[in-house]
Structure prediction request, 126 residues.
Amino acid sequence: MSRSSKHRATAIALTWVCFAASAMAIREIVTIEEPQPAQRVEGVVLDPSGAPIAHMTVTDRTKEWVAVLRSTTTDDAGHFHFSHQRGKSVYYLRFDHAMFNPLQLKLKVDKNAPQQTITVKVPIGG
Prediction:
C-alpha cells in the first residue's frame, strides 16, 4: 500500500470514528414544567457559566410544543423578544442550538410578575 493510500485510509477511518461518536451522542430535551412568570415575552439566554448565547433559535409553539407559531434568534448578547399576543397568557417556548440540549419552558405573562423578563440557562448538549 502506497503512502498516500495509507493516509487516505487513515482519514476515512477517522471520519467514520467521528460519525460514530456523534451518532452515539445523546441530546435530551429538557423541560421546565413550572410556568415561569414574567411581564413580557422576552429575556436572555445564558450558558451554564453565565455567558450569553448568540444565534440560539427561540420558537413560540402551540400547547405542549407541538407546532411552531413563530421563531426568532438571540442577538449577540443572548436577548430574544416576541410581541405579546392579545388574549394569550401562557407561551410554550423552546430554545434550540447545536451546542446545547433543547430546552422547553412555559412562560406565564403576568403584569404583576416580580421580573419583567426571564433569564434562561440552557444545559450543554451531548
Confidence is low (pLDDT under 50) at residues 4-24.
